[in-house]
Amino acid sequence: MIKLYDYPASGNCYKIRLFLNILGVAYETVPVDFYPGLEHRNADFKAINPLGQLPVLDDDGFVIRDAQAILAYLASKYDAAGTWFDRDDPVALGKTMMWLAFADQITATSSAARLHDVLGFDLDVDAARKGAHAAFRILDDHLIEQEFVGEYWLAGDRASIADIACFPYVALAPDGGINLGNYHGIRRWLARIKRMPDFVEMPGIFLEFDEPMAAE
Amino acid sequence: MAKTTDAFALNEWLVIGRLEDATHDKPRVTRLLGQDIRAERTADGAIGVWETDLAGNKGRALPVQERYGHIFVTLGDTPRDLLEMPEFEEEGRRLVTIGYVRVKTSPLRVVENFLDLGHFPYVHTNYLGAEPQTEVANYKAEIREDVDEVWATDCSFFQQKAAKSATDGQQSEYEYRVTSPFITVLYKTCPIKPGAWDLVGLFVQPLDEDLCEAHSFVLPFDEENTDVELRHFQQTIFLQDRPILENQLPALLPLTPGTEMPARADATSMTYRRWLKKKNITFGVQKDAASTNSRAA
Amino acid sequence: MEQTSWIVAGLSAGLFEGSVMPVKTPGKDLAVWRQRSGQANAVEDRCPHRGMRFSMGFVRGDQLACRYHGWEFDGAGVCKNIPAHPTLQPPKTICAKTFVCQEVNGFIVVNVGDDGAAMPAEYSELEGENMVPVRSVYLDASISTVRDWLMQAVFPTFAAGQDGTGTPVTYIYGNLNDNLVRISAQVGATTEELILALQALDDDRTGVHVQVSDMGSKEEMPAVQRHVARWLADLRLRLESNDQSQINKLKISA
Fold first, then answer.
1. How far apart are the two ends of chain C, measured CA to CA in Å?
2. Which of A145, A22, A169 is nearest to A85 (CA)?
3. CA nearest A29: which of A7, A11, A61, A53?
4. Do B229 and A31 touch (CB under 8 A)?
5. Which residue among C46, C85, C93 sits closest to B135, beta carbon to beta carbon?
6. Residue among A8, A117, A206 whose CB faces B102 most closely
């Protein structure tokens, strides 16, 4: 079975959990004491990922790190319909890769601000917030242009792993003192993602309750 | 802000970190009630805590207690006693410290949220509650004058994953105990040991009136879960609460009647507010009733 | 022009059914939300129960629910449901503060005052104009500064960009009221119009909600919307640059 080295409060781990849930692929987690234990920095964990970062995925002995790489791997292996990562159309592939790379920019800024505000990490939070706003403006402008042509997702007219990759640290930005109130394209895109079938939440990201939830 | 002049808050024993957060190499540099402080492990093995000035120079040494896995200090000369938790001596229990979550709000808002049953289905969906089981049954909330504590008893709520070791939903029984404006303990039905209570404790470190760090621990009977799993469960709960706490207006707790409208389910909160008022505490309390819709953006 | 307590809070198209958005105004935060049946409403962004921002909440049918405890309020701000007490009829005293909210030809217009003043005629006069929503942009400048800029802003028309012959453009600027600017650009026989609704967030931040005249076929309008959106993004960048030579390129007089 797939093993995910996981921290529940990590947006990068969450994007893997979210995608596995959407794909309906079973997995187990290996909880890593990111905080306060800083287990990801110790030698045992660095034997698994020398970068000392989460998440890491172990699929029957194939060990892969980097959230975006893991999404690409999972889509290629487990998405039989091939809708989440279109590798046949060069334009679609290019767009998806462009926004996958953009996810790192969001992590470097928005996630850093959150680590400062939530866990007291010592870093330049003003620079992190400023960088996040710069990234969110680019994202927001793009999403608004997408809406004009009836394409409601980052890389085209259907959701891709690029949306999954960018979603968590945009949705979690308020945790880092980053107000999303003026990004209307982003607001609507977040709501669309939350309404996807098999969406799951993480702490800091709330479920949408359109209708009262039925009793189990 | 400068150190508070609130006599009640100054004379509380307040948490400033876990025991392992202050080492000889790496001190814990933080703040308490507006006063910068520094904690470090000294040559004799004990933890020392000092007030510090803007340049970080040590000033007055503060009284310190190392208890319940955490460091407690007081800024006052006549502190009230730190709470007693005899359960820490009981065989078979395990202490797991959770660490802290920093929250931009009044420490009193954080304590009040911890005492709240009605938010479980909406904030801790599928963890501590879910629709349609939203009802908060009547329970008893009181100020116990003999011990000067707030207690809520006979609380119960239907929960999906009441604790990390619970697999099915169950009707959980709760008791809440508030021993200080900044300290509260939850006693909760133990899913694996009938008749026993698991403890979840919340020590709120007030940095400023509208900024705090919520430290917590669990002291359960539990043989199934690792410390890390228990930690992750509690961190998940606190991180679900955090966006709520940072979006309440105003950030400071209003004690003026009519500013907020409680329901019967809020009996613990109402009792807690009444107790705070009796103590004339002002730290973390809304000063001007007119400014309800303001909060630094 | 008289001071009015009516503001434009956003574009109708930006608020889909069953959603809620925060709207900042000087000294007052609002949550603007749309019922499932379509009606837009404005409420103070603060649940009367425990002060939680409504803008973090969710819409259930025609009621707005607070995220904290699920209390539900109708469009008039009356509490209809307290989930902790499912059988209880909520007391009438539990109310959220609401504001009159109307939609006028693609704009969401709210009276943020308690004066009961009627909506200024400039808004209702927009009714019937054939406009298409573009987007809202937010600028780090006061509303008067933004208005001054817009009243002399060069809007490179879509048509001029298409014909490439350098047909001269004639601009007419209209200040419909403190919050409404109309820019008409005539290129040959065609006129392109922008209606820009200005919304002060505070003393030095302003939102601009923009619509463009419906000029073409359904196929063509997305290109027009994108054209205007890119001009707005360019405008924002220049205004933020603090570089007067960059800013001057916006102006008709430069």
1. 28
2. A22
3. A7
4. yes
5. C85
6. A117
Write phi, then psi, for B242 (nearest 5 degrees): -55, -45
Residue A179 contacts residue B297 (beta carbons within 8 Å):
yes
Write down the residue that tokens 């200005």 correspond to.
Answer: C198
Interface of chain C against chain A, CB under 8 Å? 10, 14, 16, 18-19, 21-24, 55-56, 58-61, 65, 67, 135-136, 138, 207, 221-222, 225-226, 229, 233
Residues of chain C short of pLDDT 70, as ranges, are: 1-3, 163-165, 253-254
- Predicted structure pTM score: 0.96
Domains contained in chain C, CATH given: 6-116 (2.102.10.10), 131-248 (3.30.530.20)
CATH class of B89-288: alpha beta
The pLDDT assigned to C121 comes to: 93
Per the listing, tokens 């809007």 go with C155
Query: What is the predicted ipTM?
Result: 0.95
DSSP string of C66-117? -TTT--EE-TT-BEEE-TTSTT----TT-B--EE-EEEETTEEEEE-SSS-P
Strand order from edge to edge, sheet including B64-67: B14-18, B70-73, B64-67
User: Quick one: CA dihedral B92, B97, B98, B102, positive or negative?
Assistant: positive
Q: Which residue has the tokens 């958005």?
A: C21
* Cα–Cα distance measured from residue A148 to residue A137, given in angstroms and rounded to the nearest whole number: 17
CB B37 within 8 A of CB B16: yes
Q: What are phi and psi of B62, to 5 degrees?
A: -105, 150
Q: What is d(CA C168, CA B163) in angstroms, rounded to the nearest whole number?
A: 73
- Segments making up each domain of chain B, as ranges: 7-73, 89-288
- Read off the DSSP letter of residue A109: I
In percent, the amount of chain C with pLDDT more than 90 equals 74
Residue with tokens 């234990």: A37
Q: Which pair of structure tokens corresponds to residue B55?
A: 């340049």
CATH (residue range B7-73): 2.20.25.680
Residues B203-239 have pLDDT tens digits of 999 999 999 999 999 999 998 899 999 999 999 999 9
pLDDT at C159: 80
